[in-house]
Amino acid sequence: MIANVVLAGISLAAFYFVLSAGLSLVFGIMGVLNFASAGYFLVGLYAAWYMLGHGSGFLVAALAAGLISGVTALIVEFVMLRPLYRNPGGQLLTTLGVMLILTEAVNWVFGPQIQQEPMQGLLASTLPVGGLPFPVYRLLLIASGLVIYLLLVALLRGTSLGLKVRAGVESQTLAELSGIRVLPLRSLVYALGGILAGFAGALYGPFGGVYPGAGTDTLLLTFIVVVIGGLGSVGGTLVASLIIGLAEALVGFYAPNLALTVNVLAMIIVLILRPQGLLGRAPGRRDTHAA
């Protein structure tokens, strides 16, 4: 029984990592608290649901959902955010507005009703864990989270692009003085954040349902994860996701009504003891307002 609950918590953690990694990454390089991430999540959720309903396999639908969300994010960055890089308040209001616009657009096109996204084939089956059936789909969540973490680590630590991203995180002014073009780098990072949010939306549909409020419903949890882990830290996001996922599964098993309360309390405790998050940088070490 406990093994089943722990594995369920790890699967939740994997999903929370995919959900939150893009938001953390965007803040790390751009200094933008990207509320629009919830909108890109919603775009990916409905894109995957629509494609699955028209005969696509789940992997194709999930990858396409990430791509569609990434393109949407790239358009938003180019048209709306690029003129506001010296205006943090304008960035915040713009990303919030994008989230609301995308939510209302989805509601207008598809309606407010909750759509079901049933799994087929292997993903609909179960495996015995601790004497109880465990959904294969949750194993897919774990595999997805692990693969995305490894890909992000490889990108940030093993490529020239990753080196430029990390240089931009440390100091955008010095990065530009070193010949790094920060503006297109921001666009790529913002699009990557959209891709991750859209892919997370595709993963969410089978167990969370498909409905216009899904983006805003997951937004609080996303911020809890990135605040605990440290804004801008991919490793911190992974650690925080494991903490929140396991705590939610274990507390939810014994006291379901306290699951969200425990998550909020964990965030408050971390903010008191370590305001920058578990693996975040101390205040004053980042330069995010260079043009």
Structure description:
The chain has 291 residues and is mostly helical. 73% of the residues lie in helices and 3% in strands. It is built from eleven helices and two strands. A two-stranded antiparallel sheet has the order 1-2. A hairpin with a 2-residue loop joins β1 and β2. α5 packs across α6 (160-170). Residues 285-291 have low confidence and may be disordered.
Side-by-side strand order of the widest sheet: 1-2
Residue fraction in strands:
under 5%
- The CA-CA distance between the termini, in Å, is 54 Å
- Main sheet record: 2 strands, antiparallel
Which spans of ≥5 residues are poorly predicted at pLDDT below 50? 285-291
Quaternary organisation of the protein chains: single chain
Residues in helix, %: over 70%
The structure class reads mainly alpha
Helix-strand topology string = HHHHEEHHHHHHH
Overall radius of gyration = 19 Å
Average pLDDT metric: 86
Tell the overall outline: globular
How many helical elements?
A: 11
Number of strands: 2
